[in-house]
């Protein structure tokens, strides 16, 4: 019995963290391209209806549901609801952000008060019709579990939260452990997941500020990567299984001694260098699997994304085949007959990431990009489906964006 207890004591979170895991070596500069038809069975273009009330500017977030597209627009600070064929349904003005509460089949929209001390939450059906209950949260006084904006809904009233720790003591032992994530049932802590040595979490928070919560949750299951050391986990509300560790070229990642450091001067210096870098990889996100293919998007400093206009030098969205070991840059796929030689992503959707939903990937393009591509590919004699023929006949370069729906092979 004593021997059993001894071994159980060894199985601490730190021990789990140290377990060997398969490494995947990723060099974005050596990723393959290919044709769109090599990776997708079909490509559809869905124009979002353009009216005075439905005019969309800069798409910040897009949610795909079984009955609608829900879009958060930075220009108008509004939330738009469109049907799956692009018909305008509703606009909710003066909102900031959205998330999809799948377990309750509702969209939650939010906005901050002018002084940023309160958070206003509104609940809508997938059609945009408002539900009866709203919520106002005093951010200064509220506990994190009470603020749904900072949590990702799983299912059956379980929510995922990213832990934020305040470290006042620099004398942290590597054997001290905390957790990246917490799961709440309603407003009570249910479980903590993904153990991490305190010195690494402290350095991570010092350098990058925060780790984005998973955007993709399917039937309560999601994927999560730790920042800078890129340990990839498959999780649900009860378990966290480490699948792989991604290893990037040394000139695009941080050495181990930095993410283990408690030297504030060093960490501040590294942070400043990161935020002026055009290539540093901070994390991977938008993670999901399709068969043997691992899809992910590189996370680099947002300050760089805002000024990055190079199509060829910077790639963000990748698919890695865990069987063939082949890495493909989705950004570099060449349009062919399956997409009528039109592009499948705009620069904004590349940097903000595609949306996976039920064996499809979704992106978006401006009408300016589509009309420009149409003129540039006339010599290829493209065969446009009726929907695109009608679009090019009735719309113009200033019309609303177009959703691109791609069925994965």
Strand order of the largest sheet: 1-19-18-17-16
Strand content: 35-45%
Q: What does the radius of gyration come to?
A: 22 Å
CA-based shape: globular
Kindly describe this structure:
The chain has 409 residues and is α+β, with helices and mostly antiparallel strands. The protein has a single domain (21-408), classed as Neuraminidase, CATH 2.120.10. The protein has helices at 2-10, 13-18, 198-208, 256-259, 264-274, 302-305, 347-352, 367-376, 386-394, and strands at 22-25, 32-35, 40-47, 59-64, 68-73, 78-83, 88-92, 97-101, 106-112, 118-124, 130-138, 151-153, 158-162, 177-185, 188-197, 217-218, 221-225, 231-235, 240-247, 283-290, 293-299, 317-321, 327-334, 355-357, 360-365, 402-408. A 5-stranded mixed beta sheet has the order 1-19-18-17-16, with no helix packed on it. The chain has a 5-stranded mixed beta sheet with strand order 2-23-22-21-20, with no helix packed on it. Strand 4 and strand 5 form a beta hairpin. It starts with a helix and ends with a strand. Residues 1-18 and 307-312 have low confidence and may be disordered.
